[in-house]
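Hello,

Following up on my earlier ticket. Below are the two sequence lines again, exactly as submitted.
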Amino acid sequence: MKRKDADREFRGFLEGRVDRRDFVRRLLAAGASVTSVAALLEACSGGSKEPPKPAATPSAAPTQAASAAATQAASAAPSSAPAPASLSDLPEIEKELHIANWSDYIAEDTVSKFEKESGIKVKYSTYESNEEMMSKLQVGQAGYDIVVPTGYIVTVLAAQKLLFPLRKQYLPNFKNVAGLFVNPEFDPDNAMGVPWQWGTTGIAYRSDKVNPPPDSWGVFLDAKYKGKMTQMDDLRDTVGAWLKFRGKSLNSTDAADLEQAKKDAIAAKANLKAYVSAPVKGQLVAGDVWIAQLWNGDTAQAKVEEAKIEYVLPKEGAGIWTDSLVIPANAPHKRAAHEFMNFILRPEIAAGISEFTGYGTPVQPAMALMKNPVPYPSDEERKRLEYQKDLGAAAQAWDKLWTEIKSA
Amino acid sequence: MTARQRFLRFFHERPQLKAWALLAPGLTWLVVFFIVPLVLMLGYSFMPRNVYGGVDFGFTLENYGRFFDPLYLKIVLKTTLYALGCTAVCLLLGFPVAYAIARGGRFRNFLIFLVMLPFWTSFLVRMYAMMFLMRDSGLINKTLMDAGVIETGFEMLSTPFAVLTGLVFGFLPFMVLPIYASLEKLDHALLEAASVLGAPPAKRFFRVTLPLSMPGVVAGSLLVFIPALGSFLTSDVLGGAKEILVGNLVQNQFTSARDWPFGSAASFVMMTLVLGAVTLYLRVRDADEAMGK
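Thanks for your patience. The regenerated structure is below:
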């Protein structure tokens, strides 16, 4: 019994941390090499009794590490970018494609299926933050054909003329995209991007410990759960939640709105155990944390381990996000990139991807093919959801606000 | 004369050229990967932030001006206190360890190997391991509760105690190794002389051993203090990210805030402060030594 507990906890610990964004980003920030991390994770997972669940396992890490290494070597070679095609047409389908995506954010067989079917050779590399990917595009030497920015980053990249407008004639499967993801605010007419995965940022809680179930961001102000709650370690998500709490836009740059959000955030901080994003999953499973601000997909991953974890969209509203596939303006294989986009918009392929990531698929017909699809928000819920926008010049004021909250 | 001999003679006759040839690889590496980025950062720190996150060309002192806000100065102070605390604890824990190893006889090399062992894993992985130990249902609390020592678990994680413990754990080897190096070279004849002249063990330690190990203590303290001042992982992982240290502030500028100029300016202010403090300390010490002699 004890032994099994320990095993489960260790695996939860691993899975909690082996999250595509936080864990690897921090590891890399700490100077660990991609291969050493992958080797370590593999060694660890090899020690546990049961095979880890596909949704959050490190099993994809070694292949990704290998491809990342291959990419590093390859990107040193000069890229031969062809002259931009005419507005309507692209030349013939290239034989190569270079995709850069977040780690653990695609099914293991997606790329190989595409290669087999199209005859296009895919180079696949990974990154850990929008900023990392963006700085590579800004320098202009990455040689990527597809990258996967979060919604408002698409706006920023498009404004800097770093993206290639999509040629819809090569994307017949775009018709499969659910209405919610067509013509998003951050990318009018889907001119630049094809939706990849989506999610919301709400509240995960332990139904066995929290009664009545929370329905408001105000739960973080309730001293009853002091020390058992966490909010995300991200200024946009946490400050955004407090703006929503007062009925404001989570993109507000109004000084009075922000001042109030700061007060609420500081009041809640006294009750918080920590500011932590994805890694909180392990603590929810272990029961150290009862209420956590979290994404729906990560909550779903935690629920696989512990059925008593539930998810709620607060009544005041919450954030929704969509990551999109986009083509950099100087991508060398633009037509092949379209082929890949069209490929992942096929229901069976899209279903496979979302089964792996645990996030929602924007491809409507894929829903019927999945065991546990993330349901689309109802019309009523949709009204409460808001996309993040780039803050532009207000980013400095927001960052100072965050520093003040953390220093309080 | 073979080509090899000609080659060797060429350099033998030109010692200065030989010195430069030997320096060249390391120097090139330093210039390309250290000096050039540093100069770039210095440049950035005087430029305005671009709305989309890069930099615009231009000149401004605003980035430095912003840093001297009481908000940020308080963060500098708090970070300095953490770093000083970490250095003090490392010194208290590290000196006896180094002393024991230096007297460790044939186990010496093995003990040194044990001190170095943590470096085989990444700093971050070690911090997560600490988290695993210290969390509410972690190994420490669970063991104590199962043994009936305590009823409810201690709240260790997300406290200043956790941050300090993490920093000490992370940097302790940097204290032990230099102190060991200076203790190992200690001439036993001096201790024997002190004995013969009637000094009791305590006096021998404070009058002979400690002063002679000072170079190691100073080196160790600097090696611990400086990285502790710049650390950002420990407060994030073990402190529950509820506090912000200078390292986190700089990291945020380069990631979420996309404000490279301010991040660069903050880095340069910290670098200047550290360099200034170290230089001042070394000056004072040299002056003291000169007076002593």
